[in-house]
Every structure is written in C-alpha cells, then in structure tokens.
Design a protein that fits this description.
alpha+beta; 7 helices; 2 domains; 367 residues
C-alpha cells in the first residue's frame, strides 16, 4: 500500500511530508492528525485555521482530490486620480482666479483597475481548507462573446455629419444633402436610383432632427435593393466562467458524520454576507462581502498535472439534499444516511490569454 500523507495543502518538501505521514499513520484513532499544522517554521504559532475532509480514511500519496481554500475577500480599492492641476493665476492680493491643465505623466487615465482578484489574494493566508474527492462529470467551459455588426456606406458617410450637426444642425443638413447629391453620380447611374439615394440621405438627416424615417427603407422601396451591410463578426467582450460540482456524503461513523456537518456548515457560512453586527459604526449601514474561494485539483501533494486550474471564485449557490436516496433515513444521532450537495462557483475575473503564461497557467491544460 502506498504511504499515506496528511495536510497536503501546505506544500512541504517530500521528506517533511513523509515525516508527517509517518506521524499520522501512528495515530490510529485519528487518521487526520498532523504534527500541529498551525505551527509555523521557528515555532511561532500562526492564526488557527480549519481543515475538513471527506472521506476521513487515508488519502494515498497518489490520490486525486479537490482542495477548496477559503479566504477573506480583498476589494478592488478603486483609485480615481485627479487628471487636472489647479493653479491660481490672479495677481497677489486680488480675488483668486484658477486655471487648470492636465497633469503631466498622469498615466493611462482610462485604466480604472490595475489588479485582478488573483493578484490581490495571492499573498493572503487562507482561513482554512476543505478536501473533497474529485466529483464525477468534471468539465470546464471557456467562452468569449462575438457578434454580428454592419456598417453600410450611408452610415459611414453619416459619421462625419454627426460631428458637424452638433455645431450647426440646420447648416449641416443643407450641406450634407448637397454634398451627397454631387457625389452619388458615380455610384448610381440610374436617375431614379439617384433620387432615391438623395431622398434616403435626406431622410437620415431628418432622422437626426427627431424624425422617424428609415433610409434603408426608402432605398428598398425605390430600387428594390439595399446597401451592402459590410457584415462581419466582431469581438464583443469576455465572459466569466462558472463551475458546478456535485458531491455525495455517506457517513460511515459518527466522526465522519460530524466532519460532513462541519463541511456543509462552513461552506454555507462562508458564502453568506455579513451584516457588520460586530461593528457598531457599520451595523445597519453596510453589508460585508462573503468569503471567496480558491479551488485546485491536486494529485498527492502537488497540483494535478493535467486538469484545469481555477481563478479565485465566489460561491454563488449551495444546495443540500438531506434525503439523497429519496428516502428519509438517519443514524441514531440524527445524521442523514445519504446527503447530496451541489456547489455553484463563479470566477471573480474573466480569463485572459496572459493567464496561461503565469506559473499556474503553465500546468497541464492551463485554465
């Protein structure tokens, strides 16, 4: 039998891991026991963390499992910087008069967020860990948004009109129609089509004044044709990935039943918002963010060499069925015989190509 190991989350060296495994294997009454996992290097006590695991039997050194780390949420801390510099240009002793100019070397003024959740959380210590078997039917879906878009010649021509109409609507409409009339001769030789195009351009200009006239409708009515829409599929934006996991719990003894209870309780409490009742200044005014989660497929004491990685995630739904076999049955202490649990997670940030170049993204299939 392969040697068991314990506390796989701390990434200790293999020799140290074997020492912990030997210590754990000698404690037959507690297969999860380790040599004080809250004791940091040098004997300093770290903040106590929780560790829950199902099943409670030994995990072999080559076992695959899902590790869920629970962390405090770290907000974006949006920093809106001033882009103008104020200067008093009035003579000394007179009423102040201010002039403003752009601050030099102000950086990218359109960049409203420079860090991702992964960057903000990478140095945070987890509050605890939950170890669960890898569920059946695991999968990941990566998608982006693309959509059809068109730009017909009349719309392209009208872009310049839009800018000029902001200055002088009436004059812009007259010049717009006149210019269009003089330029379409080469495009359409048929006089009827030319008149229809002029009418369409006039209609679009009239539409800018609040009318309800369709230029393409006028063209279609007059000629039976429509403008070339120059249709193309254009990138429309990024999507945030979601993951759903299903777990079955069957307690084989009272201790394992307690462990299952703590796992469910911890997940439900961690995904719940806080009402700041412990802070009199904030109570009743703000609602605090729930905890966030970092998931990782692991093999033994290392990241899984093939399966996908995860960005930090929010737990959006916990569904627990205490009659997993569609029959109400409990042990003597009230623990249900069969429990099923569904967890729905959503990543805090979209996935980008650069994430695959990171240390985590280079493992296995990446993200």
């Amino acid at each position: 039998m392969a040697e068991p190991f314990s506390n796989p989350s701390f990434g200790v060296a293999s020799a140290d891991n074997k020492a912990l495994a030997d210590a754990a294997s000698n404690l037959s009454n507690n297969p999860l026991a380790v040599a004080n996992p809250n004791l940091a290097v040098g004997g300093k006590v770290k903040p106590k963390i929780f560790q829950y695991r199902y099943p409670l039997n030994r995990i072999e050194s080559g076992s695959d499992y899902l590790m869920i780390s629970v962390l405090d949420y770290d907000p974006v801390k949006l920093d809106i910087k001033s882009v103008l510099q104020e200067k008093n240009v009035a003579p000394e002793g007179s009423e102040p008069k201010y002039e403003y100019k752009a601050i030099e070397n102000g950086g990218n003024l359109l960049n409203v967020s420079s860090t991702t959740a992964r960057q903000r959380l990478q140095n945070k210590n987890p509050l605890g860990y939950i170890y669960l078997p890898i569920p059946q039917n695991i999968q990941d879906t990566t998608s982006v948004s693309w959509g059809e878009d068109s730009l017909d010649p009349l719309s392209a021509f009208g872009l310049s009109f839009g800018a000029d109409a902001m200055k002088d609507v009436g004059g812009a409409v007259r010049e717009y129609v006149s210019l269009a009339s003089s330029k379409i001769g080469d495009a359409l030789r048929d006089p009827t089509a030319q008149k229809a195009l002029i009418a369409a351009i006039s209609g679009q200009a009239f539409g800018a004044l609040g009318g309800n006239v369709s230029a393409s409708g006028l063209i279609a009515r007059a000629t039976g044709q429509v403008f070339n829409p120059n249709m193309e599929l254009l990138f429309g934006g990024v999507n945030i990935r979601s993951f759903s996991f299903n777990f079955d719990f069957v307690a084989r003894n009272s201790k394992e039943g307690d462990e299952i209870k703590q796992i469910i309780r911890t997940l439900k409490q961690s995904m719940s918002a806080t009402n700041n009742s412990n802070n009199s200044a904030l109570s009743g005014v703000f609602i605090g963010s729930p905890k966030v989660f970092q998931l990782e497929y692991r093999k033994g004491n290392a990241p899984h060499p093939f399966l996908n990685r995860f960005l930090p995630m929010a737990l959006t739904n916990v569904s627990v069925n205490y009659t997993g076999s569609n029959t109400y049955a409990t042990y003597w202490d009230g623990t249900p015989v069969h429990i099923t649990m569904q967890l729905d997670f959503q990543e805090l940030n979209p996935l980008y190509a650069e994430d695959y170049d990171s240390a985590d993204g280079s493992i296995g299939v990446g993200y």
